[in-house]
Amino acid sequence: MQDQFIARRRRLLQTFAAGGLASLGGSALAQAFPFAPNQRYPDPAVLILDPSFAKYRIYSSSVEQITTGFRWAEGPAYFPEGGYLLFSDIPNNRIMKFDEKTGAVTVFRANANYANGNARDRQGRLVTCEHSVTRRVTRTEKDGKITVLADSFEGKRLNAPNDIVVKSDDSVWFTDPLFGINGEWEGFRGQREQANTNVFRIGADGKLTAAITDLVNPNGLAFSPDEKKLYVVEWKGTPNRSIWSYDVGADGVSLSNKTKLIDAADQGALDGFRVDRDGNLWCGWGSNGALNAEPADVGGRKVFQLKGKPEDLDGVMVFSPQGKPLAFIRLPERCANLCFGGPKNNRLYMASSHSVYALYVEAHGAV
């Protein structure tokens, strides 16, 4: 067993060297975690909670760890033109690039203003939520120049732009909670200027409007495949983290009929999510850090332990368009965000704490 562990560790380090991460220096790297994929097919990490999910599972596909060694991996976005994935490593203040063809992992952008959410717009450009320092939404043009799409609303700085999605009419929608200015881990502590934590819309004409103003720290967001519904995570919801559903008006702007679609219960942590072509929601999942009301005896000490076990919660939950649980993809780390990618748009990339994992499925991303 020890020999097997050493061999896996050696292969992991070889992967780093091949991907170029070793050249970044030890101070830039977090702990790297060896990962042993399941040998059996179908992968026992894919738990079917409803028989209707079986058609999305590929019998001979298993969860893979494509890279590791980050402090908080977030905001994955896939670019089919180049066959690569971009994702944020927030505390290390950089955006990373994974090349699907070569397996190389390199720094796409250093000093990224603690970028969080990323997305590809309809013209193949990167749009990014810089959620600290600059506190703005930017677009990276094809020539590498950066265009600022929004950095203030009604004369006051944005809070900390978090997650982002681009609609077919070229409007850009993003959430603006407080996480990037609440402390020193994911950026720098800053002064809040917005009275609310809004969901904003940037029109194709560049006009910024507050589309939703009554959610407490909204986080992930996505549209249904027909764009008739907008889904938004409320991170600080009462009593639990939730996904709210809104009907999108015929004008593509107005929202109505706010409905709670998914309740994460008192243990689960919703973060980022994506929608497939059938309207199912694939949600990053894990422990929300809530503690039991009473301490337990651990080694002679009274310890307030977590509600639920992270090893039972960490992964991806899949829900139907009606909010019915369909499946759970078990991961060894909490999944913060995910996206679909690959040449056929059926490879699920999962940004999960220190690592990024991937799984081929018989589902395709809606965008």
From TrEMBL:
NADP as UniProt keyword: no
Signal peptide: 1-32
Domain of life: Bacteria
Keyword Signal recorded: yes
Cited InterPro entries: 6-blade_b-propeller_TolB-like, SGL, SMP-30, SMP-30/CGR1_Lactonase, TAT_signal
This protein's UniProt keywords: Hydrolase, Signal
UniProt xrefs under Pfam families: SGL
Domain SMP-30/Gluconolactonase/LRE-like region: from-to ranges: 72-354
Descriptive protein name: SMP-30/gluconolactonase/LRE family protein
Organism of derivation: Azohydromonas lata
Lineage: Bacteria, Pseudomonadati, Pseudomonadota, Betaproteobacteria, Burkholderiales
